[in-house]
Amino acid sequence: MSERSSGGARSRSWPSPADFAAPPGPVERARWEEADRAARPARLARLRARFADAGVDAYFGVRREHMRYLTGFSLAEGEEKVAGQSGQFLVTGDEVVVLADSRYTIQVGREAPESRVFTAYNDLPARWPELLASAGARRVAVEAGFVSQATWSRLAAAAPDVDLVPVEGWVEADRATKEPAELARVAAACAVADRALAALLPEIRTGLTEHALALRLEWLIRTGGAEALAFDVACLAGPEAALPHGSPGDRPILDGTVLLFDFGAQVAGYRSDMTRTLFVGEPAGRDLDIYRLVATAQSSAIDWVAAAVSTGTGPLPTGRAVDAAARNVIEAAGHGERFGHGTGHGIGLATHELPSLGKFAPDVPLPSPTVFSVEPGIYLEGEMGVRIEDLVLLDASARRLERLTRFPREALVVG
Predict the structure, then answer these.
(1) Owning domain of residue 201
(2) Are residues 218 and 237 in the same domain?
(3) Is residue 289 part of a domain?
(4) Are 60 and 208 members of one domain?
(5) Which end of the chain is more exposed for a tag (fewer CB within 10 A), N or C?
(6) What is residue 415's predicted lDDT score, i.e. its pLDDT?
(7) 252 and 117 in one domain?
(8) How many CB atoms lie within 10 A of CB 146?
(9) How far is CA 46 from CA 42, 53, 395, in A?
(10) DSSP for 337-399?
(11) Residues 18-75 pLDDT 10s
């Protein structure tokens, strides 16, 4: 397909689905599953290593990402709302106990065969003393940020001789550093998303609604190798693109406007996240200038990390410093107040996890190996918005910084 310039934006020579990696097959998926099984003892050992300093002899977990990471048991997005206590788990010094009712006992046996199943039917406070006695637990670390005050009070009252110790961030910190098989799955999810958007490009035309395009992109993701969406597809046109987390509606796509897609795929439990802002028809000069500014800000942030990685010496930059590298570009152009969110976030079993890249991110070096988004944006209320988001793999020991999102970043004209 020939290439034609449109005010500096490319309107032909679009990427093709064939430009990106094919979906993983059953052999690769089985290899990933085996890698997780092999990694769990080390994951549990890192968790148990924290027990002595905190003065606890067990850890009670409720987050579904932690369930999968530490035990192998998995719940679908949102399923934890109907699963009761199933999947919640207790890690002691020598065993892992997974709670399950009759709907999940077979699944636990398959996915977490090294764990002991403890039957619970949404009656945890009543079973709590028996659970702790069976595990010999007297001081229990609890994910305080994810247990309600009411539940905490009931557990404390049910076993008054057991101390509940609030902890936060233990497993999250471990999950921020990714194993090779985890990175491979994020990369595979990125390729699914890349192919899906490439397949959608020729279908975009004026008159179609945001909702129709979002639904079509979802179909392409789900039929292109993903087991699920990483999150609901955002497709926002014209003024709606100024909403960083807007939802698609029945608004038709108009000529001369921007069209923003924010979406991700899930492959073998791991997620991708990308944003592309396209131009429908001839782009306005102002809109193209905003796009170029956002692209420059993103490149500045990524180049900042790349420079640190390339030396192989000294500490890695902090998430706060990477955010500043992007934010300074936008502020210098007079749009600082139109970039309110952080520059990026970690991703893996959850769409948003550590590390954080923002103005208030912890002032500590980025972990490695890890993967995170870089997604600066500029939003003009009532007019338009631009965001460009890629996932970046960082491996300091290998002096490696790689974009996992391979879809082109240059301005593209569609429709």
Answers:
(1) 5-27+177-414
(2) yes
(3) yes
(4) no
(5) N
(6) 85
(7) no
(8) 12
(9) 6, 12, 20
(10) GG--S-SEEE-SSSSSEEEEESTTS-SSBPPSSEEEEE--EEEETTTEEEE-BEEEEEETTTT
(11) 999 999 999 999 999 999 999 999 999 999 999 999 999 999 999 999 999 999 999 9
Q: What pTM was estimated for this model as a whole?
A: 0.94
What ranges in 21-147 are assigned the alpha helix state H? Answer: 26-48, 51-54, 64-71, 105-111, 124-135
Q: Is residue 43 part of a domain?
A: no
Q: Looking at the structure, do residues 131 and 201 belong to the same domain, yes or no?
A: no
| Tens of pLDDT, residues 86-117 | 999 999 999 999 999 999 999 999 999 999 99
Burial of 173 (0-12, 13-18, 19+ CB in 10 A): middle
Last residue of a domain, one of 105, 139, 174: 174
| pLDDT surpassing 70 at residue 76 | yes
- What single letter denotes the amino acid at residue 376? P
Q: Look at residue 215 and tell me whether its pLDDT is greater than 90.
A: yes
What is the domain-level CATH number for residue 363? 3.90.230.10
For 28, 31, 116, 117, 149, the CA distances from 36, given in Å and listed in that order, are 13, 9, 18, 20, 33
> For the chain, what is the domain count?
2
- Note whether residue 186 is domain-resident: yes
Looking at residue 20, its pLDDT comes to 97
Same-domain status, 188 and 111: no
Indicate the pLDDT class of residue 226, thresholds 50, 70 and 90.
very high
Question: Residue 229 pLDDT > 60, yes or no?
Answer: yes
Beta bridge partners of 96: 91
Residue 67 near residue 149, CB atoms below 8 Å: no
**Are 155 and 297 members of one domain?**
no
Asked if 290 and 386 count as a contact pair (C-beta separation under 8 A), the reply is yes
CATH number at 146 reads 3.40.350.10
| CA torsion angle 68 171 303 326 (round to 10) | 100
